[in-house]
Amino acid sequence: MYSLTAEASEKNKIAVELTPEEALALTGVAFNGNPEIKAEARRKIRRAFEKTFDFQYQDRLD
């Protein structure tokens, strides 16, 4: 597995472990045999972000 670290701000970082297929799917490579790969990668990133930062749906609308 590969680890993807994205800077959320100057102080905070989130870390997400992705399989090689998930990382490729996020770059735009299509996996016709399993289209769920990209969705699972996005869910992993969203869960990691939500664990790191406390936000609610209303905050995103403002």
Helix content: 40-55%
On the 0 to 100 scale, the average pLDDT is 78
Structural class: alpha+beta
Number of strands: 2
Major beta-sheet overview: 2 strands, antiparallel
**Helix-strand pattern, N to C?**
EEHHH
Major beta sheet, strand line-up = 1-2
Q: What ranges have pLDDT less than 50 throughout 5 or more consecutive residues?
A: none
Key words describing this protein structure:
2 strands; single chain; 3 helices; alpha+beta; two-stranded antiparallel ribbon; 62 residues
Description:
The chain is of the alpha+beta class. It is 48% helix and 19% strand. It contains three helices and two strands, in the order E-E-H-H-H. The model has no long low-confidence stretch (mean pLDDT 78).
Topology:
Layout: E1 2-7, E2 13-18, H1 20-27, H2 36-52, H3 57-61
Antiparallel strand pairs: 1-2
Provide a short characterization of the protein structure.
By secondary structure, the protein is an alpha+beta fold. It has helices at about 20-25, 35-50, 55-60; strands at about 1-5, 15-20.
